[in-house]
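note to self — DONT lose this again. spent like an hour looking for the file last time. sequence + predicted structure for the chain T wanted, 276 res
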Amino acid sequence: MTNYGQDQGKCGVAYTSSAPLQFDEQQVALFRQVLTLLESAKHPYAVAGAFALRQHTGICRFTKDLDIFLPPARARQALKILHENGLTCEIPDPVWLAKVHRGGYFVDLITGMSNGVITVDDTWIERAQPARVCDVESRVLAPEEMLASKLFVTRRERFDGADIAHIIFASGGRLDWDRILQLAGEHWGLVLWSLMLFQYVYPAHSDYVPKTMWKDLMARLGRELDSPNPAARFRGSLIDDAMFAIDMEEWALHDLQNEYRGRRIPIDLQSDRGSV
């Protein structure tokens, strides 16, 4: 058993701590093999999830998966590399997720958010920071990309607002907010929502977010409240398509998530010369 993360809390509910967890050696071996193969091939990627959260905040959290972020155009080659080295690969959702697994353990290859709004591109990899993951010299997402990757994790069964608050708090005011707004784009309202939660949780540290940022986002909100756009579309499905299903299925509101997902380049296991 190897110390790399953090155990589950009472009654199986995850809780935050800096205490390391004993990971199963077979799990670590899979993680290590995948990272080593991608490193040996010099394939562009960055680690996210629990390993990146620990790097940026010091929080250790139990994880069943190793999350690897990479651009959609890079996913096919990564799967080919892993498949040719004896690993089983599958694509549960071609819009954003492929999986590599062995012995009940998984590595997730992620190309963006499941709702199709935010897509990983090469800049995410270029901005990634060096880190040692499972004893492999690797890299993790920069905190700005890490934060952006969590903006839409707002479902009833999983909410990453606390992770965002911890990233902001751990940054001590050093985040590149221009980059975060660039990544969020027209969905800046979720950034403001996250900042309101941060300010509520850490009221003595609201200055970790520049005043110019607060003023800009509040001004944007004010303009929208003063002049609501009657043509603005319902966005509930981007937050939680299950909880807002009634809006689309019974009240005939637009399924914006389906539209965004339709724009994405799908992951596939086919090369120009056939199947991997």
